[in-house]
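Researcher: I'm comparing several assemblies side by side, and this is the next one on my list. It has 821 residues spread over three chains. Same procedure as the others: predict the full complex and return the structure.
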Amino acid sequence: MNRTFVEIRERRLSLSNLGKDLYPSYGFTKGRILEYYRRIAPFILPHLKDRALTLKRYPEGVERDFFFEKRCPSHRPAWVKTAEIPQDDGERMTVCLVNDLETLIWAENLASVELHVPLARINFPETPDFMVFDLDPGDRAGILECARVALILRDLLSRMELASYVKTSGKKGLHVYVPLNRKETTFEDTKTFSKAVAAIMQKHYPDLVTAKMAKKERNAKVFINWSQNDASKTMVCVYSLRAREKPVVYFPLEWRELENPAGLDDPEKLQVTHSEALSRAEKKGDLFQEVLVKEQKLPHL
Amino acid sequence: MAGATIWKGYIHFGDTDVPVKLHTAIKEERIQFHLLHKRDQVRVRQQMVCAYEKQPVPAEEQSKGFEVEDGKYIIVDPEELEQTAPESSRMIEVHEFVKTGQIDPIFLDRVYYLEPDITNIQGKGYNALVRALKEMDVTGICTWTMRKRSYLGALQARGRVLRLNTMRYADEVIPVESLQLPDVPLSEKELKIGSELIEKLTAAFEPGKFENEHEKKLQDMIEKKARGEKIAVLVPRRLKPTESDQLLQVLEASLKKAA
Amino acid sequence: MAVQGIWSGTISFSLVAIPVRLVTAVEPGRVSFRLLHKKDYSPLTRKMVCPKEETKVPRDEIVRGYEIAPDQYILMTDEELESVSPERSRTIEITEFIDMKEVDPIYYDRPYYLVPSKGGEKAYRLLVEVMRRTNRAGLAKFVLAEREYLVAVTPRDGALALTTLHYSEEVLPEEDPSPKKEKITADEESRIKKSVKKMIEDFDPGKYANERRKKLMDLLEAKAKEKAPVEAPAVEEEEGEGPADLVAALEESMRKVKEKR
């Protein structure tokens, strides 16, 4: 195993196997993954801060099995911030908090290509900071349908005085976030609200939208998954790399990108590669910043 | 007397088989506290509640799942995962022997005494095994399945008896490196005085001289409270830490005191 | 280490006092399962329930009590518990040093590490180093939570390890098997020794951990092939669209949205 040592803010890290290709179909080594995360760090860290990290590790590359770990690996440096959360069996589980660059690099050195975090922060586990809609097109639906649904959803939310933000998800899906950032909000609130929204969407656009999970319902429709609004659920963090064939990024989009129908028949067009992600973020800043700061109240609850 | 027999099995390696009985070696008797509901002082109970239905779910309606992806589970019978050998196997299989000195005690967990099981007609070989392990100064690393769980263990001889320790796995032990302790230079003088002080304070290990005094005091306090008497709440004082630049002087003063 | 420790206080020997924190040295690695509701795989959570009132009890309403008679309890606060042995709750006072080799490992209970707090780094390092040079361990008594422990403080790879020990009254005497004394034949002895010799290896704890993990992954993979992982259904079974007010407001908004489109 070959090792390299780096120092970040006087903390020493041992990095291994930087030359290993973790995206074999495309060609993207672990070293390049680390480089991506190092550069995207100023944008991704605020979204990871104080949230229990779920690691999805791909030590053998994205085309092989992954390890799903909620527990913070015990072989960690002292400076990795952790927290303890109570578990079902009465035991307490130690989780990692990625609150600084060196912890991010340490986690990436473990080949945690994708970073998943809960909707609530560690000290307020029952208070969601935002409400999410996971738009998942069925087999015969595509990015075009998904974008349509996202735009209608945005309009509907906007009429309810709620601003929303969108990021790419997977091959042709989208995630819509509604920032809340109020300590009075509960998961009960976000679940009730999002479920009602999904039901209304299905009611008025039955050929386009389904609010039911069953696969047979989806097909040519877009499934609005509202059940992610739960204390036990996690979402892949914005700016995280995707662990599939190509190193694309879960990247925030401007709503106008979805409004432009031309180019939406090719799902590839909306995918943001690692290099695009870096140049776009460095140029335009964090388009998802409002998700962390904007305070909104869910009405009519 | 020794603890109860909790299990019977046989040690196996090569063409050696030694039937044994496992006994507990430690008996802890401590004052037990219960968790109570403040309002009515009734003991609280634990219940498994369904996240969605919000109703308690009895054991027979529960199954165990291993989370492989967010919200997705593979239903498993944990016994399948926990066992390396079928439940019915009574074999304590020794996979290798290592020099006893190589095993850092941090890896040893619970300990059991092994007694030869003479009810088993194959009941021989125990003493020979004890002698061999002692003379060669080795420990057997083994695995076995007991009460639906599989264990990694260390088989050792001590005196005329065999002991079986369950062992911790390497990924369960926090490595010292992760503590990231700072490196601080020490002078030869400090080290010399320090070592002399330790030698002066050295005594033979006599475990019998240590008693659990706290237990008695706690019992007294509980009884006092039960009688309705007031308990004095004492705030312990904190010792003033030794300043780094005072260390040598404090060591010298300690040495003087110990003499 | 983890941001929170288990305890913080002082460790002392003679006149030297070192501020320290106690942290765990072992993290349970047992595979953790989620308990699920058999019928729909929804996850279960543990709740503390008061059987009398049949309600859930939040953490701050739970207290510790000692049973003196059936259903009669004496409650103890944390301050009162600390008052039982106040000095020992704050200080690990090493009263003597021993040769660790004299300690039968049967006395070992749980392992911890001590980590120096600010200002104690030098004295900490000194204690580690001199114990290492003299091959000694420090013995102390120390109260953690409601229990008093006899502990051994030892140098380990440059750190102070603290191991709680069992009291001698807690260690059961061994059964001496000598009544069942068998004659050991020279043959038998050499046969066993030969077998053992063939199986001597270096101690490699990492090896067993990797094997265990691999076994787990293999089994899960095999199971995943038989049957796809199950997922708890979202609460779609629930009837109703939601609170009436909300639904009405949504309907009104949706009407406006459709007009514009």
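Model: For your comparison table: Residues 109 and 194 of chain A are 37 Å apart (CA to CA).
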